[in-house]
Amino acid sequence: MNGRERGEKRxxxxxxxxxxxxxxxxxxxxxxxxxxxxxxxxxVSATTRSPRPGEVNGRDYFFYTEEKFKDLIAKDAFLxxxxxxxxxxxxxxxxxxxxxxxxxxxxxxxxxxxxxxxKKKESLGVFIFIMPPSKEELLRRIKGRGTEKAEQIKxxxxxxxxxxxxxxxxxxxxxxxxxxxxxxxIKRIILEEKGRIAGDISxxxxxxxx
Length: 210
What we know:
By secondary structure, this protein is an alpha/beta fold. The chain contains eight helices and nine strands.
């Protein structure tokens, strides 16, 4: 590895992939994390679902038609994409790559299918699974959102068992009992990972045994 390559690697940001069952509170945790750790960049995903009340295009999601989304799939414009409950979701590849090259840490808040895709491509990513305190609490939270009909809630809950089993594929599991506590734990994970990566790169650059 030459000096330029070492420098590029040294300054590359950390990719953080955060996911878990629908309704577990991923978005709320990420907003709190952004508040207590403002240096992190929150990647905006694309979706074909309709905006929920209060959501803004380009801030919460890029809201695309199904036709446009499929065109971007054909152009390999997504780091990952998945079809979930009749809607498409994806992570714009260029945005994430540019953020990491600038040396900024980037969070992907995505569904489990997408996270498993990313893990196959980005082996250096840090994967964090958000776990509900219990399935009963998860059901209460989904109902509390008031955004889905009873049949949609039933479909989601039927998938929960499989979703919870996927936690074994992640580097860390964080239980979302209290939002601020979960966000603080993720911040601690980020700082530990940054320190570990910096140490690994330093050892490699100096060609010493660590």
